[in-house]
Amino acid sequence: MRFFALSAFLIGFFTTAPLGAFEIETETLFEVDQPTATLRVISTSDQDLFTPMVLAFQAENPTVSVAYTSVSSTELMQAVYSENVPFDVAISSAMDLQVKLANDGFTQPYQSAQTNLLPDWGNWRGHVFAFTQEPASIVISPSAFAGLSLPETRQELIQTLRENPDRFRNRIGTYDVRTSGLGYLFATQDARTSETYWRLMEVMGGLGTQLYCCSNAMIDDVQSGTLAVGYNVLGSYADARKAQGDDIHVIAPRDFTTVMLRSAVIPVNAPSPTLAQGFVDHLLLAAWGSEVPDYYPFPPIANQNQNAQTSPRPIRLGPGLLVFLDQLKRRLFLEAWTNAVVQP
User: Fold this and answer.
1) Looking at the whole model, is its pTM more than 0.70?
2) Which residues of 146-182 are buried (b: 16+ CB within 10 A; e: fewer)?
3) How far is CA 258 from CA 88, 165, 278, 318, in A?
4) In the chain, what are the domains?
5) 8 Å CB contact between 40 and 273
6) What does R_g of the chain's alpha carbons equal in angstroms?
7) Mean pLDDT in each 10-residue stretch from start to end of the chain (344 residues)?
8) b (16+ CB within 10 A) / e for 273-302
9) What gap in Å lies between CA 274 and CA 62, rounded to an integer?
10) Helical spans, DSSP H, in the chain
11) Cα distance between residue 281 and residue 112, in whole Å
12) Are 40 and 88 in contact (CB under 8 A)?
C-alpha cells in the first residue's frame, strides 16, 4: 500500500537501475548449535553496540541463527529499495528513508502488544517502529580546548572557532551529507530549527571541514587528536566510547539538541516474517517496557510530549520527513550546504 502521492515526486536515489551490488561494512552470522531458522537483519547500527540485543534475542529463541549485515543508510536503501534483497528486518537511523520505504510500499504492517506500547510519534501507520531516542552531539577533544571554555551552544562554538582559527583549522569534522543518509537528516532538521546552523556551517567550511561517512570514524579522529571537534555525532556512540575510556567530551547543545529515533521495519519480501515480528517485539519491549534491560545499549527513552518546545528536539516519524527527499528541495539544500561547507 502506498500512502502518499508525494512519493511520486521524491528524488530517485534508489529508483534507477543500480550500478552494482550494495556495499557491506560487516557481515556476521550469530550461529546456534542446532539452527531451525535464520533471521536476516540489515542494519545501520554498529555491530559491536548491537550484539547484546542479538544475543538476548537468541537466548529467548535458542534455535534461531541471526545473519547481521551492517551497512550505511544509503546502502540499506540500495539493498531494500533498488535491489529487493530479501531481509527480514531493516534497522536504520535515517528516519526519513525508513518512512520512504514504508510510504512506497516496501514494508509490511505489524501490530502486537509491543507495538501498542509506542506513542503515535514513534509508530508510523503500523509500519515504522522507533526503539531508541538518540541525540546529535558535539564531540570535542579536551586537549584541543585547553585554556578555552567548552562551548555549550552552537553560537558559543561559532565564537570559539572564529577567535581561534589557527587552532581549529582542518580539525573540524561532520558528516558528508551528500552521501550520508543520517547526516542529511540531521542537517535538514537543524536547518529547519535555527538559522544558526547555516552560520556554523559557513564558519566550519572556512576552516577546512573534514567530511565523514559515520559517527565512529569522527569519534576515532577526535580520540586520536586529528580532530578537535566532531559535529552532529551520534550521542549514543560517543557516550559508549567515552565509557570505554576514550579521551573525549560529549556535549548536548543547550540551544537545541536534535534527537533521532532509530527504527525498524519489516520488508514486504521478508523470507521469515514471523521471526521478523518476534525480533521487532524484542526491540520494542527492551525500549518501551516497564524496565530497561541491561542488554539495551541505547539511552533510555524519555516518554515525553514530543511537541514540547524544550531544548531536546525529537524528530517525529511521519510524512513531513519526506519533504527534504523531494528532488528539487534536496538539490537546493545540497547546493547551499556545499557552498557553505566545501569552500575552496
Assistant:
1) yes
2) eeeeebebbbbbbebbeebeebbeebbbbbbbeebbb
3) 29, 26, 30, 16
4) 5-133+261-303 (3.40.190.10), 135-259+328-341 (3.40.190.10)
5) no
6) 20
7) 38 41 91 95 94 97 97 93 96 95 97 95 96 95 96 97 97 96 94 95 97 95 97 94 95 93 97 98 96 93 50 86 92 96 83
8) bebbbbbbbbbbbbbbeeeeeeebbbeebe
9) 16
10) 47-60, 73-77, 95-103, 154-163, 165-168, 181-193, 196-206, 215-224, 235-243, 273-288, 327-341
11) 8
12) yes
Question: What percent helix, strand, coil does the chain show, rounded to 5?
Answer: 40, 20, 40
Grid cell of 331 as nine digits? 538539490
With a CB cutoff of 8 Å and minimum separation 6, the contacts of 37 are: 63, 64, 65, 272, 275
Residue 182 one-letter amino acid: L
Cell match 521478523: residue?
A: 276
Strand 210-212 with 229-234, pairing: unpaired
